[in-house]
């Protein structure tokens, strides 16, 4: 059994960014990481732009201007604006090349087709210069940028339709267990609803993984072996839930060993999630997560998600951590490090009731996990604890 820190280190050492680069439309790019610098194909703004509704002025020395015309957004004209002349202009319209400034309409009076200024105006006031935001051929976004909604909008504003990104892994989720039935059916004695696959896939889609396939397998060695062989061959990542402990019907470990995967670790000194298993086979990353639902999800957030984000090109792939002061006392029962479902508010954190690894009730109301390393045996009210924020 290895320590949490060692497990994290082994995953980090054995997971690298994909070298597969794909081109995708920006409408599908949310959550992907840019694999190349994106250069701006245009100056933005592409022309001198008015930042206000008002008047473009041919000079800034006078206070009275003859009004000689109008330019609105989208107009393709460049009126000759001499000193002492003004034109009506609107936000987003191209500013005549000879204009020295734009003044807001609230700051002028119009009398007899003349624009009368109440105050002087500074040169270039209210004019967005050509290329103010970005110049043509400059780096608009560097390699390694995670694409957000703002990023998609920014790329669209530069006229970019497609980007080169790191491919995200295709993921197989396998739920093991004879007792599992899909929600919606009536439970027979001994059965429970299968909740891990929808939970894990929801956590994956939440952060932009889309290529996810689901499999359900009974506790039988031969079919477990066949399904694992098939999924390890066809997917970049295989996440198995359950069947990884030591019971007579836990066949996942045995099947993985028979498939000659490269086992990197099995069992971490932590609660929940002790029987976590991590292996690789050729390019495929394999995690066997303990079947207990809270163990599965804890292991997912602490180990699996960072690994999948790293493969996808993320430079920061662990959940954000902070510290907070505990509102409650808590005493550990065993020696293992613990990840406790908790609710963090500002600089305080409350460890929730119901920490058993079979329970999701507290997890469903948690926004954080409190991490108690192996050497911490208890915490008292007011003690500073490590807090891992959940997405
Ligand atoms: N003799 C020992 N027994 C156990 C040990 C041990 O060290 N020695 N470890 C315990 C710990 S800790 C954990 S965690 C579990 C992990 O067991 P498995 O990964 O083999 O998981 P299963 O036995 O298949 O299931 C455990 C539990 O979770 C329920 N489950 C499983 N899959 C799902 C699913 N998809 N949706 C909802 N619930 C699921 C299953 O019904 C069981 O109740 O082993 C302990 N035992
Ligand atoms: O390792 Mo288990 O998740 O404690 O029940």
Quick overview:
The chain is built from six helices and 28 strands. The chain is α/β, with parallel strands linked by helices. The structure holds ligand LQZAQKY5 and molybdate ion (MOO).
Features:
elongated; Molybdopterin biosynthesis moeA protein, domain 3; MoeA_C_domain_IV_sf; six-stranded mixed β-sheet; 6 helices; single chain; binds ligand LQZAQKY5; Molybdopterin biosynthesis moea protein, domain 2; alpha/beta; MoeA_C_domain_IV; 31% strand; 391 residues; 28 strands; binds molybdate ion; Molybdenum Cofactor Biosythetic Enzyme, Chain A
Description:
The protein folds into four domains: 4-20 and 168-311, MoaB/Mog-like domain (Molybdenum Cofactor Biosythetic Enzyme, Chain A, 3-Layer(aba) Sandwich); 21-43 and 132-166, Molybdopterin biosynthesis moea protein, domain 2 (Alpha-Beta Complex), CATH 3.90.105; 49-128, Molybdopterin biosynthesis moea protein, domain 3 (Molybdopterin biosynthesis moeA protein, domain 3, Beta Complex); 321-389, Beta-clip. Helix 3 runs parallel beside helix 6 and helix 4 (221-234) crosses helix 5 (252-258). It is 18% helix and 31% strand. The protein has six helices and 28 strands. A six-stranded mixed sheet has the order 7-4-6-5-9-8, with no helix packed on it. A six-stranded mixed sheet has the order 16-13-17-21-20-18, sandwiched between helices. It has a five-stranded mixed beta barrel with strand order 22-25-24-26-28. The protein is α/β, with parallel strands linked by helices and 391 residues long. The structure holds ligand LQZAQKY5 and molybdate ion.
